[in-house]
């Protein structure tokens, strides 16, 4: 039912609605909002929609002389109010609530993605009774892969099969981001034509929940052999992660309470899925950090770049699933495993220097089709991951990983065709098989993050070696060495982007403070913080704006510290403040002051506020740098989980 902007006069109405509410045809043209909904419900609708785009929650009502209860949803659309009404079938609400709570607990206890998604589709299939419930995950090209499925036996199995990105156009994906639930009771049901009370009114029903499917979507579902469908969006931290599909071979209603219960299960499962992925990535990053070359021995006895590569190549190739690694420094190449020839690597670096100027990594999984590498002789390589090493402002080195071809067999749910689709066509029982050649495994986001950490540490190790080499010629080249030492000191102790202390230098200062604390009992604190939603800033505005955020933030914070306090970049968007002679009250006061100060920061080209989450840890007897930083890290992530832009105090010990 379409009402005017004040929710008083009917502009259009569906014939099916009058049948549903038991309104005789002869009364249809004399209807008002009050006569359809009742005076009290009409007044409540007008009151709750004042200044609002939609009702905060559905309204339930009943009509005189009927036993059926109905559910009403309403929202504003330009100059109209769209009212959607559906039967509210009686359900055992307590039993449904108990069932949902039990399934939510099971979802919260899942420890692996496969276990979580398998339980989710089974739980949803039991709740709705659909013939097939599937989870479809989108890859970076928006192709969909069915990663979990529960079967009722009346529709073919789709598990492990793919759907092309053309099945999920951007308009459809955006619609799911705005309206995450879509129900189609019967694909073949004829659409109602609105009875227009105001013929000149132009009414947009694209965002109705109870609307009929578009003709192309109707043909698509018919092609799959589907009559009833319920789909729910699974929103990730950076956009649409995937969709949960419920399909039936026959028309299939889903009561509103069941629909709401399914949406709750999907939302909870998606959040758990993101948490499991974050934990998995954290474990991987820790393994990469454990392999870093700048150990205590490397600091005492610096090794040459070739020696470092020789010792670490096998470990690095294993971590990054590569079959070769090369290090390019000042025109010289050190390599291990399966790599191109040194002249080819030099030519590749020359092109990289022109095309890739920011500090992040560069990667491809299709060397032969990538314009930068297509003309280079790399017959055994299909994937490349390269990270720059910022040795000095005028020149960079490069650490480069190579991957071989991985022939991939993809199973598509339906073979692509250019011929017009028939009105009804059931999907074939056997999937269409495609063999993809000329590509490597994809470089995962966490691998791109990890290679940056590795590149920073390798830069420091190489700098330490250069310092050692130059010091051996001190007597012969005293003047030249003075300039080189100043440059290398900057590289060894300061972050090349923000120009504050790097991780190596701030660790030195923390160790010195620990010695003083143990000897004299002088308390001090660590404040660990990072930029909230930094990945979103990089993805939306580019790495240039992301770098400017880090530089501006570092300048602002460093300028506000006492002379005895120190700021260092811990890695990525993480920074640490060493607050000397500080007890818990002083440290928390400093943290709150920094948090408020950062919130005032403005960066050109960025229209969103910049905030930080801060973890505060106070030195306790027996602390080491690792335990102190560990407690600060736990507190910082507690601040992020609690809503970000806040300060949390670390517990005395992390078990």
Automatic annotation (TrEMBL):
Q: Which UniProt keywords apply?
A: Chromophore, Coiled coil, Photoreceptor protein, Receptor, Sensory transduction
| Listed CDD domains | GGDEF (cd01949)
The EC number of this protein is: 2.7.7.65
Q: Does the keyword Cytoplasm apply?
A: no
Q: Which InterPro entries match?
A: Diguanylate_Cyclase, GAF, GAF-like_dom_sf, GGDEF_dom, Nucleotide_cyclase, PAS-like_dom_sf, PAS_2, Phyto_chromo_attachment
Name the enzyme group at the top EC level. Answer: transferase
What is the designated name of this protein?
diguanylate cyclase
């Amino acid at each position: 039912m379409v009402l005017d902007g004040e929710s008083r006069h009917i502009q259009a109405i569906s014939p099916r609605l009058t049948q549903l509410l038991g309104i005789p045809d002869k009364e249809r043209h004399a209807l008002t909002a009050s006569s359809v909904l009742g005076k009290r419900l009409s007044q409540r609708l007008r009151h709750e929609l004042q200044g609002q785009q939609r009702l905060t929650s559905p309204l339930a009502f009943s009509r005189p002389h009927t036993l059926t209860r109905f559910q009403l949803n309403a929202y504003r659309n330009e100059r109209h109010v769209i009212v959607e009404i559906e039967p509210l079938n009686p359900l055992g609400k307590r039993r449904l609530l108990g069932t949902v709570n039990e399934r939510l607990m099971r979802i919260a206890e899942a420890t692996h993605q496969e276990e979580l998604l398998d339980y989710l589709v089974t739980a949803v299939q039991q709740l709705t009774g659909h013939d097939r419930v599937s989870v479809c995950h989108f890859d970076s090209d928006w192709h969909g892969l069915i990663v979990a499925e529960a079967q009722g036996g009346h529709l073919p199995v789709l598990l492990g099969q793919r759907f092309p990105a053309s099945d999920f156009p951007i308009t459809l994906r955006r619609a799911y981001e705005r309206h995450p639930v879509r129900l189609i009771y019967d694909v073949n049901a004829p659409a109602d034509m609105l009875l227009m009370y105001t013929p000149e009114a132009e009414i947009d029903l694209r965002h109705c929940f109870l609307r009929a499917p578009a003709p192309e979507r109707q043909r698509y579902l018919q092609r799959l052999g589907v009559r009833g469908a319920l789909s729910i969006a699974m929103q990730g931290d950076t956009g649409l992660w995937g969709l949960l599909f419920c399909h039936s071979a026959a028309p299939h209603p889903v009561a509103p309470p069941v629909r709401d219960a399914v949406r709750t299960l999907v939302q909870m499962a998606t959040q758990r899925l993101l948490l499991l992925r974050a934990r998995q990535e954290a474990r991987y990053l820790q393994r990469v950090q454990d392999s870093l070359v700048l150990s205590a021995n490397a600091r005492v006895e610096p090794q040459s770049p070739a020696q470092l590569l020789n010792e670490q190549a096998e470990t690095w190739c294993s971590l990054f699933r590569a079959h070769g690694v090369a290090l390019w420094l000042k025109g010289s190449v050190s390599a291990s495993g399966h790599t191109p020839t040194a002249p080819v690597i030099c030519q590749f670096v020359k092109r990289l220097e022109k095309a890739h100027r920011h500090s992040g990594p560069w990667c491809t999984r299709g060397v032969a089709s990538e314009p930068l590498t297509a003309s280079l002789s790399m017959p055994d390589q299909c994937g490349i991951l390269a990270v720059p090493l910022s040795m000095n402002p005028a020149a960079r080195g490069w650490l480069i990983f190579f991957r071989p071809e991985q022939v991939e067999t993809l199973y598509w749910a339906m073979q692509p065709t250019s011929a017009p689709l028939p009105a009804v066509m059931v999907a074939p029982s056997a999937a269409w098989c495609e063999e993809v050649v000329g590509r490597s495994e994809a470089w995962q986001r966490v691998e791109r993050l990890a290679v940056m950490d590795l590149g920073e540490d390798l830069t420091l190790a190489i700098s330490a070696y250069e310092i050692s080499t130059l010091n051996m010629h001190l007597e012969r080249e005293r003047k030249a060495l003075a300039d080189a030492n100043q440059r290398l000191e900057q590289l060894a102790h300061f972050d090349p982007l923000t120009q504050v202390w790097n991780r190596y230098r701030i660790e030195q200062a923390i160790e010195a403070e620990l010695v003083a604390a143990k000897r004299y009992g002088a308390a001090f604190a660590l404040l660990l913080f990072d930029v909230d939603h930094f990945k979103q800033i990089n993805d939306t505005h580019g790495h240039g704006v992301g770098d400017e955020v880090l530089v501006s933030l570092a300048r602002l914070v460093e300028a506000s510290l006492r002379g005895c306090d120190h700021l260092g970049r811990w890695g990525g968007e993480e920074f640490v403040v060493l607050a000397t002679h500080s007890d818990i009250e002083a440290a928390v006061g400093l943290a709150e002051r920094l948090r408020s100060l950062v919130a005032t920061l403005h960066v050109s080209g960025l229209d969103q506020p910049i905030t930080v989450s801060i973890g505060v840890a106070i030195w306790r007897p027996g602390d080491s740098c690792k335990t102190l930083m560990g407690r600060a890290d736990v507190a910082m992530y507690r601040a992020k989980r609690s809503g970000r832009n806040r300060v949390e105090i670390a517990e005395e010990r992390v078990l």
